[in-house]
Protein backbone atom coordinates (compact mmCIF):
# COMPACT_ATOMS: atom_id res chain seq x y z
CA UNK A 1 0.00 0.00 0.00
CA UNK A 2 1.29 3.45 -0.85
CA UNK A 3 0.89 6.58 1.30
CA UNK A 4 -2.08 7.89 -0.70
CA UNK A 5 -4.04 4.66 -0.12
CA UNK A 6 -3.22 4.66 3.59
CA UNK A 7 -4.37 8.28 3.97
CA UNK A 8 -7.66 7.62 2.13
CA UNK A 9 -8.37 4.60 4.39
CA UNK A 10 -7.48 6.49 7.58
CA UNK A 11 -9.74 9.41 6.60
CA UNK A 12 -12.61 7.02 5.78
CA UNK A 13 -12.23 5.13 9.08
CA UNK A 14 -11.98 8.40 11.04
CA UNK A 15 -15.22 9.60 9.48
CA UNK A 16 -16.91 6.27 10.26
CA UNK A 17 -15.76 6.36 13.90
CA UNK A 18 -17.05 9.92 14.25
CA UNK A 19 -20.42 8.92 12.77
CA UNK A 20 -20.79 5.82 14.95
CA UNK A 21 -19.65 7.47 18.18
CA UNK A 22 -21.88 10.51 17.52
CA UNK A 23 -19.23 12.68 19.18
CA UNK A 24 -19.32 14.79 16.02
CA UNK A 25 -22.44 15.36 13.92
CA UNK A 26 -22.35 13.01 10.93
CA UNK A 27 -22.63 15.92 8.49
CA UNK A 28 -19.62 17.69 10.02
CA UNK A 29 -17.65 14.42 10.02
CA UNK A 30 -18.35 13.70 6.32
CA UNK A 31 -17.62 17.25 5.14
CA UNK A 32 -14.45 17.40 7.27
CA UNK A 33 -13.25 14.12 5.71
CA UNK A 34 -13.82 15.51 2.22
CA UNK A 35 -11.92 18.71 3.06
CA UNK A 36 -8.96 16.74 4.49
CA UNK A 37 -8.69 14.68 1.29
CA UNK A 38 -8.57 17.86 -0.79
CA UNK A 39 -6.04 19.58 1.48
CA UNK A 40 -3.75 16.52 1.39
CA UNK A 41 -4.00 16.42 -2.42
CA UNK A 42 -5.58 12.97 -2.51
CA UNK A 43 -8.28 14.60 -4.61
CA UNK A 44 -8.39 17.90 -6.45
CA UNK A 45 -11.54 20.01 -6.11
CA UNK A 46 -12.51 19.06 -9.67
CA UNK A 47 -12.03 15.34 -8.96
CA UNK A 48 -13.96 15.60 -5.68
CA UNK A 49 -16.92 17.12 -7.52
CA UNK A 50 -16.82 14.27 -10.07
CA UNK A 51 -17.41 11.74 -7.28
CA UNK A 52 -20.54 13.49 -6.01
CA UNK A 53 -23.65 11.68 -7.26
CA UNK A 54 -25.80 14.65 -8.22
CA UNK A 55 -28.65 12.40 -9.32
CA UNK A 56 -29.04 11.10 -5.76
CA UNK A 57 -28.73 14.63 -4.35
CA UNK A 58 -31.34 15.90 -6.82
CA UNK A 59 -33.87 13.17 -5.98
CA UNK A 60 -33.49 13.80 -2.25
CA UNK A 61 -33.92 17.58 -2.53
CA UNK A 62 -36.80 17.28 -4.99
CA UNK A 63 -38.81 14.78 -2.92
CA UNK A 64 -38.17 16.67 0.33
CA UNK A 65 -39.53 19.87 -1.21
CA UNK A 66 -42.46 18.06 -2.82
CA UNK A 67 -43.55 16.34 0.41
CA UNK A 68 -43.12 19.56 2.42
CA UNK A 69 -45.72 21.25 0.22
CA UNK A 70 -48.13 18.29 0.07
CA UNK A 71 -47.99 17.87 3.86
CA UNK A 72 -49.62 21.29 4.32
CA UNK A 73 -52.81 20.06 2.62
CA UNK A 74 -53.65 17.67 5.51
CA UNK A 75 -53.83 14.70 3.11
CA UNK A 76 -51.84 12.34 5.31
CA UNK A 77 -53.86 13.04 8.47
CA UNK A 78 -57.04 12.48 6.46
CA UNK A 79 -55.82 9.05 5.30
CA UNK A 80 -54.91 8.03 8.88
CA UNK A 81 -58.30 8.95 10.37
CA UNK A 82 -60.23 7.49 7.43
CA UNK A 83 -58.36 4.18 7.83
CA UNK A 84 -59.14 4.01 11.57
CA UNK A 85 -62.83 4.54 10.81
CA UNK A 86 -62.81 1.95 8.01
CA UNK A 87 -61.50 -0.46 10.64
CA UNK A 88 -64.58 0.40 12.76
CA UNK A 89 -62.28 1.23 15.67
CA UNK A 90 -61.09 -2.41 15.87
CA UNK A 91 -57.50 -2.16 17.25
CA UNK A 92 -56.06 -5.11 15.32
CA UNK A 93 -57.56 -3.87 12.04
CA UNK A 94 -56.22 -0.36 12.79
CA UNK A 95 -52.73 -1.82 13.37
CA UNK A 96 -52.99 -3.79 10.12
CA UNK A 97 -54.25 -0.79 8.11
CA UNK A 98 -51.60 1.54 9.55
CA UNK A 99 -48.89 -1.04 8.82
CA UNK A 100 -49.95 -1.27 5.18
CA UNK A 101 -50.39 2.52 4.84
CA UNK A 102 -46.95 3.15 6.36
CA UNK A 103 -45.36 0.65 3.98
CA UNK A 104 -47.13 2.16 0.96
CA UNK A 105 -46.27 5.75 1.89
CA UNK A 106 -42.64 4.77 2.55
CA UNK A 107 -42.39 3.36 -0.95
CA UNK A 108 -42.88 6.87 -2.34
CA UNK A 109 -41.89 9.20 0.50
CA UNK A 110 -38.85 9.47 2.73
CA UNK A 111 -39.21 7.04 5.68
CA UNK A 112 -38.67 9.80 8.23
CA UNK A 113 -41.37 11.93 6.60
CA UNK A 114 -43.76 8.96 6.68
CA UNK A 115 -43.34 8.22 10.38
CA UNK A 116 -43.55 11.93 11.24
CA UNK A 117 -46.96 11.96 9.54
CA UNK A 118 -48.37 8.64 10.79
CA UNK A 119 -46.84 8.52 14.30
CA UNK A 120 -48.72 11.40 16.00
CA UNK A 121 -52.05 10.21 14.54
CA UNK A 122 -51.37 6.72 15.86
CA UNK A 123 -50.76 8.06 19.36
CA UNK A 124 -53.98 10.11 19.22
CA UNK A 125 -56.09 7.14 18.09
CA UNK A 126 -54.58 4.66 20.58
CA UNK A 127 -55.19 7.23 23.33
CA UNK A 128 -58.91 7.23 22.47
CA UNK A 129 -58.87 3.42 22.53
CA UNK A 130 -56.99 3.38 25.85
CA UNK A 131 -54.19 1.26 24.35
CA UNK A 132 -50.41 1.41 24.64
CA UNK A 133 -49.19 2.92 21.34
CA UNK A 134 -45.75 1.24 21.50
CA UNK A 135 -46.76 -1.99 19.66
CA UNK A 136 -48.41 0.12 16.93
CA UNK A 137 -45.34 2.33 16.59
CA UNK A 138 -42.93 -0.62 16.47
CA UNK A 139 -44.93 -2.20 13.64
CA UNK A 140 -44.84 1.13 11.80
CA UNK A 141 -41.04 1.37 12.17
CA UNK A 142 -40.73 -2.08 10.63
CA UNK A 143 -43.24 -1.28 7.88
CA UNK A 144 -41.52 2.00 6.96
CA UNK A 145 -38.17 0.31 6.33
CA UNK A 146 -39.73 -2.64 4.49
CA UNK A 147 -41.93 -0.39 2.33
CA UNK A 148 -38.98 1.87 1.51
CA UNK A 149 -37.18 -1.14 0.07
CA UNK A 150 -39.77 -1.58 -2.67
CA UNK A 151 -38.96 1.37 -4.96
CA UNK A 152 -36.17 3.50 -6.33
CA UNK A 153 -37.20 6.53 -4.24
CA UNK A 154 -38.31 4.73 -1.06
CA UNK A 155 -34.97 4.74 0.74
CA UNK A 156 -31.72 6.69 0.17
CA UNK A 157 -29.64 3.51 -0.45
CA UNK A 158 -31.95 2.62 -3.34
CA UNK A 159 -31.58 6.10 -4.84
CA UNK A 160 -27.78 5.70 -4.65
CA UNK A 161 -27.82 2.18 -6.14
CA UNK A 162 -30.27 3.12 -8.90
CA UNK A 163 -28.21 6.12 -9.91
CA UNK A 164 -24.85 4.34 -10.03
CA UNK A 165 -26.11 1.05 -11.51
CA UNK A 166 -28.40 2.81 -14.02
CA UNK A 167 -31.47 0.97 -12.69
CA UNK A 168 -34.95 2.36 -13.35
CA UNK A 169 -37.94 2.80 -11.05
CA UNK A 170 -39.58 -0.29 -12.59
CA UNK A 171 -36.40 -2.34 -12.10
CA UNK A 172 -36.81 -1.83 -8.35
CA UNK A 173 -40.57 -2.48 -8.39
CA UNK A 174 -40.04 -5.77 -10.22
CA UNK A 175 -37.11 -6.98 -8.12
CA UNK A 176 -37.14 -5.54 -4.59
CA UNK A 177 -40.87 -4.74 -4.81
CA UNK A 178 -41.67 -8.41 -5.45
CA UNK A 179 -39.74 -9.41 -2.33
CA UNK A 180 -41.58 -6.79 -0.25
CA UNK A 181 -44.96 -8.15 -1.41
CA UNK A 182 -43.95 -11.50 0.14
CA UNK A 183 -42.41 -10.00 3.29
CA UNK A 184 -45.30 -7.68 4.31
CA UNK A 185 -47.93 -10.49 4.69
CA UNK A 186 -45.39 -12.61 6.58
CA UNK A 187 -44.68 -9.93 9.18
CA UNK A 188 -48.39 -9.03 9.45
CA UNK A 189 -49.10 -12.65 10.41
CA UNK A 190 -46.36 -12.37 13.06
CA UNK A 191 -47.89 -9.10 14.32
CA UNK A 192 -51.26 -10.82 14.75
CA UNK A 193 -49.83 -13.53 16.99
CA UNK A 194 -47.66 -11.02 18.90
CA UNK A 195 -50.24 -8.27 19.38
CA UNK A 196 -53.57 -8.89 17.64
CA UNK A 197 -54.97 -11.42 20.09
CA UNK A 198 -54.09 -9.25 23.10
CA UNK A 199 -56.01 -6.12 22.07
CA UNK A 200 -59.29 -5.72 23.93
CA UNK A 201 -61.23 -2.45 23.93
CA UNK A 202 -64.75 -1.48 24.97
CA UNK A 203 -67.50 -0.61 22.47
CA UNK A 204 -67.49 2.95 23.90
CA UNK A 205 -63.79 3.37 23.07
CA UNK A 206 -64.32 2.07 19.54
CA UNK A 207 -67.21 4.50 19.15
CA UNK A 208 -64.83 7.31 20.15
CA UNK A 209 -62.70 6.60 17.08
CA UNK A 210 -65.78 6.57 14.87
CA UNK A 211 -66.64 10.11 16.05
CA UNK A 212 -63.41 11.52 14.57
CA UNK A 213 -64.05 13.78 11.56
CA UNK A 214 -61.42 13.18 8.88
CA UNK A 215 -62.69 16.16 6.88
CA UNK A 216 -61.49 18.55 9.59
CA UNK A 217 -57.91 17.42 8.97
CA UNK A 218 -57.98 18.95 5.47
CA UNK A 219 -56.33 22.35 5.86
CA UNK A 220 -56.40 23.45 2.21
CA UNK A 221 -58.88 21.82 -0.20
CA UNK A 222 -57.37 23.47 -3.29
CA UNK A 223 -53.90 22.26 -2.31
CA UNK A 224 -55.31 18.78 -1.65
CA UNK A 225 -56.65 18.48 -5.20
CA UNK A 226 -53.38 19.77 -6.66
CA UNK A 227 -51.41 17.36 -4.46
CA UNK A 228 -53.43 14.31 -5.53
CA UNK A 229 -53.03 15.16 -9.21
CA UNK A 230 -49.30 15.79 -8.79
CA UNK A 231 -48.73 12.58 -6.79
CA UNK A 232 -50.22 10.58 -9.68
CA UNK A 233 -48.06 12.45 -12.20
CA UNK A 234 -44.92 12.01 -10.08
CA UNK A 235 -45.47 8.25 -9.79
CA UNK A 236 -46.02 8.03 -13.55
CA UNK A 237 -42.90 10.13 -14.09
CA UNK A 238 -40.77 7.77 -12.01
CA UNK A 239 -42.29 4.69 -13.65
CA UNK A 240 -41.52 5.94 -17.18
CA UNK A 241 -38.39 8.07 -16.56
CA UNK A 242 -36.12 5.39 -18.03
CA UNK A 243 -38.25 5.04 -21.18
CA UNK A 244 -38.33 8.82 -21.55
CA UNK A 245 -34.57 9.05 -21.19
CA UNK A 246 -34.90 11.42 -18.23
CA UNK A 247 -32.94 11.05 -14.97
CA UNK A 248 -34.94 10.40 -11.80
CA UNK A 249 -33.58 13.63 -10.29
CA UNK A 250 -35.18 15.61 -13.14
CA UNK A 251 -38.58 14.09 -12.27
CA UNK A 252 -38.15 14.87 -8.56
CA UNK A 253 -36.93 18.44 -9.08
CA UNK A 254 -39.56 19.18 -11.74
CA UNK A 255 -42.37 17.95 -9.48
CA UNK A 256 -41.01 20.01 -6.56
CA UNK A 257 -40.79 23.12 -8.75
CA UNK A 258 -44.36 22.71 -10.01
CA UNK A 259 -45.69 22.19 -6.46
CA UNK A 260 -43.85 25.27 -5.23
CA UNK A 261 -45.47 27.31 -8.05
CA UNK A 262 -49.03 25.96 -7.87
CA UNK A 263 -49.07 25.19 -4.13
CA UNK A 264 -48.94 28.88 -3.17
CA UNK A 265 -47.19 28.09 0.12
CA UNK A 266 -44.53 30.10 1.93
CA UNK A 267 -41.51 29.20 -0.22
CA UNK A 268 -38.94 30.16 2.42
CA UNK A 269 -40.67 27.97 4.99
CA UNK A 270 -40.77 25.03 2.57
CA UNK A 271 -37.11 25.42 1.57
CA UNK A 272 -36.03 25.70 5.21
CA UNK A 273 -37.94 22.45 5.87
CA UNK A 274 -35.51 20.49 3.67
CA UNK A 275 -33.02 18.43 5.67
CA UNK A 276 -30.00 20.30 4.33
CA UNK A 277 -27.72 18.60 6.86
CA UNK A 278 -28.60 15.26 5.22
CA UNK A 279 -27.83 16.67 1.76
CA UNK A 280 -24.42 17.93 2.95
CA UNK A 281 -23.77 14.57 4.62
CA UNK A 282 -24.32 12.75 1.33
CA UNK A 283 -22.12 15.23 -0.53
CA UNK A 284 -19.21 14.84 1.88
CA UNK A 285 -19.57 11.07 2.04
CA UNK A 286 -19.46 10.68 -1.74
CA UNK A 287 -16.13 12.54 -1.74
CA UNK A 288 -14.70 10.48 1.16
CA UNK A 289 -15.53 7.21 -0.62
CA UNK A 290 -14.27 8.76 -3.86
CA UNK A 291 -10.86 9.14 -2.19
CA UNK A 292 -10.62 5.36 -1.80
CA UNK A 293 -11.78 4.83 -5.39
CA UNK A 294 -9.19 7.29 -6.71
CA UNK A 295 -6.30 5.64 -4.82
CA UNK A 296 -7.28 2.10 -5.87
CA UNK A 297 -8.36 0.85 -2.43
CA UNK A 298 -11.87 -0.06 -3.60
CA UNK A 299 -10.49 -1.96 -6.58
CA UNK A 300 -8.20 -3.99 -4.29
CA UNK A 301 -11.09 -4.77 -1.90
CA UNK A 302 -13.23 -5.90 -4.82
CA UNK A 303 -10.50 -8.25 -5.97
CA UNK A 304 -10.12 -9.67 -2.44
CA UNK A 305 -13.87 -10.27 -2.13
CA UNK A 306 -13.94 -12.11 -5.47
CA UNK A 307 -10.96 -14.25 -4.40
CA UNK A 308 -12.62 -15.21 -1.09
CA UNK A 309 -15.77 -16.40 -2.87
CA UNK A 310 -13.88 -17.80 -5.87
CA UNK A 311 -15.92 -15.46 -8.06
CA UNK A 312 -19.14 -17.35 -7.30
CA UNK A 313 -21.94 -14.83 -7.88
CA UNK A 314 -24.47 -16.64 -5.66
CA UNK A 315 -22.00 -16.83 -2.76
CA UNK A 316 -21.23 -13.14 -3.19
CA UNK A 317 -24.95 -12.37 -3.31
CA UNK A 318 -25.67 -14.15 -0.02
CA UNK A 319 -22.58 -12.64 1.62
CA UNK A 320 -23.57 -9.10 0.57
CA UNK A 321 -27.21 -9.64 1.60
CA UNK A 322 -26.47 -10.80 5.16
CA UNK A 323 -23.39 -8.62 5.57
CA UNK A 324 -25.26 -5.45 4.65
CA UNK A 325 -28.24 -6.46 6.82
CA UNK A 326 -26.16 -7.06 9.96
CA UNK A 327 -24.05 -3.96 9.35
CA UNK A 328 -27.11 -1.79 8.75
CA UNK A 329 -28.73 -3.02 11.97
CA UNK A 330 -26.09 -1.27 14.05
CA UNK A 331 -24.61 1.40 11.78
CA UNK A 332 -25.94 3.88 9.25
CA UNK A 333 -26.57 1.97 6.00
CA UNK A 334 -25.67 4.95 3.80
CA UNK A 335 -21.87 4.87 4.36
CA UNK A 336 -21.93 1.08 3.88
CA UNK A 337 -23.83 1.35 0.58
CA UNK A 338 -21.61 4.23 -0.56
CA UNK A 339 -18.59 1.96 0.00
CA UNK A 340 -20.12 -1.15 -1.61
CA UNK A 341 -21.27 0.56 -4.82
CA UNK A 342 -17.74 1.15 -6.19
CA UNK A 343 -16.82 -2.42 -5.15
CA UNK A 344 -19.65 -3.88 -7.24
CA UNK A 345 -18.86 -1.53 -10.12
CA UNK A 346 -15.28 -2.81 -10.05
CA UNK A 347 -16.55 -6.40 -10.33
CA UNK A 348 -18.81 -5.34 -13.19
CA UNK A 349 -15.83 -3.81 -15.01
CA UNK A 350 -14.08 -7.18 -14.70
CA UNK A 351 -16.92 -8.84 -16.61
CA UNK A 352 -18.89 -10.34 -13.71
CA UNK A 353 -22.71 -10.49 -13.76
CA UNK A 354 -23.41 -8.15 -10.83
CA UNK A 355 -27.19 -7.71 -11.19
CA UNK A 356 -27.98 -10.12 -8.30
CA UNK A 357 -25.47 -8.21 -6.15
CA UNK A 358 -27.29 -4.90 -6.60
CA UNK A 359 -30.55 -6.42 -5.36
CA UNK A 360 -28.80 -8.18 -2.48
CA UNK A 361 -27.24 -4.87 -1.42
CA UNK A 362 -30.56 -3.03 -1.66
CA UNK A 363 -32.55 -5.64 0.27
CA UNK A 364 -29.88 -6.16 2.91
CA UNK A 365 -29.17 -2.48 3.57
CA UNK A 366 -32.83 -1.38 3.66
CA UNK A 367 -34.26 -4.33 5.60
CA UNK A 368 -31.28 -4.42 7.95
CA UNK A 369 -32.37 -1.05 9.35
CA UNK A 370 -35.12 -2.91 11.23
CA UNK A 371 -32.63 -4.87 13.35
CA UNK A 372 -32.16 -2.35 16.16
CA UNK A 373 -33.55 0.95 17.38
CA UNK A 374 -30.58 2.79 15.86
CA UNK A 375 -30.62 0.92 12.54
CA UNK A 376 -32.41 3.65 10.59
CA UNK A 377 -33.37 7.29 11.00
CA UNK A 378 -37.10 6.45 11.05
CA UNK A 379 -36.54 4.20 14.08
CA UNK A 380 -34.89 6.99 16.06
CA UNK A 381 -37.46 9.62 15.04
CA UNK A 382 -40.54 7.53 15.88
CA UNK A 383 -39.09 6.33 19.19
CA UNK A 384 -38.45 9.99 20.03
CA UNK A 385 -42.08 10.88 19.27
CA UNK A 386 -43.24 8.00 21.46
CA UNK A 387 -41.01 9.08 24.35
CA UNK A 388 -42.31 12.67 24.16
CA UNK A 389 -45.83 11.32 24.67
CA UNK A 390 -44.82 9.31 27.74
CA UNK A 391 -44.29 5.94 26.07
CA UNK A 392 -40.53 5.32 25.75
CA UNK A 393 -39.36 2.53 23.44
CA UNK A 394 -36.18 1.11 24.96
CA UNK A 395 -33.39 -0.44 22.90
CA UNK A 396 -34.02 -3.86 24.49
CA UNK A 397 -37.82 -3.68 24.03
CA UNK A 398 -37.42 -2.91 20.34
CA UNK A 399 -34.64 -5.49 19.86
CA UNK A 400 -36.93 -8.33 20.98
CA UNK A 401 -39.28 -7.57 18.10
CA UNK A 402 -37.14 -5.80 15.51
CA UNK A 403 -34.19 -8.19 15.24
CA UNK A 404 -36.24 -11.39 14.73
CA UNK A 405 -38.42 -9.58 12.18
CA UNK A 406 -35.29 -8.37 10.39
CA UNK A 407 -33.85 -11.89 10.28
CA UNK A 408 -37.17 -13.24 8.97
CA UNK A 409 -37.41 -10.59 6.21
CA UNK A 410 -33.77 -11.09 5.14
CA UNK A 411 -34.23 -14.90 5.14
CA UNK A 412 -37.28 -14.49 2.89
CA UNK A 413 -35.22 -12.19 0.67
CA UNK A 414 -32.42 -14.76 0.44
CA UNK A 415 -34.81 -17.50 -0.66
CA UNK A 416 -36.39 -15.07 -3.13
CA UNK A 417 -33.01 -14.08 -4.60
CA UNK A 418 -31.80 -17.70 -4.85
CA UNK A 419 -34.99 -18.67 -6.72
CA UNK A 420 -34.87 -15.50 -8.84
CA UNK A 421 -31.21 -15.86 -9.86
How does this model look, in words?
The chain is mainly alpha-helical and 421 residues long. It has one domain. Helix content is 78%, strand content 0%. It contains 21 helices and no strands. The protein has helices at 3-21, 26-39, 45-50, 54-71, 75-86, 91-108, 111-129, 134-148, 156-165, 169-194, 203-210, 221-244, 248-262, 267-272, 276-295, 297-308, 313-330, 333-349, 355-368, 377-388, 395-420. It is globular. The two termini are 36 Å apart.
What is the ordering of alpha helices and beta strands? Answer: HHHHHHHHHHHHHHHHHHHHH
Instruction: Report the sheet-strand fraction.
Output: under 5%
Main sheet specs: none
Number of strands: 0
Task: Enumerate the spans where pLDDT stays under 50 for 5 or more consecutive residues.
Answer: none
Mean pLDDT: 88
Rounded to an integer, what's the Rg over CA atoms? 22 Å
The proportion of residues forming helix, as a percent range, comes to: over 70%
Q: How many distinct helices?
A: 21
Envelope shape:
globular
Secondary-structure-based class equals: mainly alpha
Could you tell me how far the N terminus lies from the C terminus, measured between alpha carbons in angstroms? 36 Å
Write down the domain tally. 1
Amino acid sequence: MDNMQIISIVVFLAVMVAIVSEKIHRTVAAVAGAVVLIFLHILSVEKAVEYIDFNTIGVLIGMMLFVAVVRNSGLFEYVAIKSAKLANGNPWKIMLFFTIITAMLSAFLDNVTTVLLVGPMTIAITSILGLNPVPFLITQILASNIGGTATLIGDPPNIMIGSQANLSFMDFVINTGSAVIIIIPAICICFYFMYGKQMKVSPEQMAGVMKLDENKSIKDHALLVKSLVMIVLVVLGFVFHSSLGVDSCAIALASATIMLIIGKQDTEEIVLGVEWSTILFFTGLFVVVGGMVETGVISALGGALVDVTNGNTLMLMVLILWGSAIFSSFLDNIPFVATMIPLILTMQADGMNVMPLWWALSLGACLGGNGTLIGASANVVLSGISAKHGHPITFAKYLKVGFPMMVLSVAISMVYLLIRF
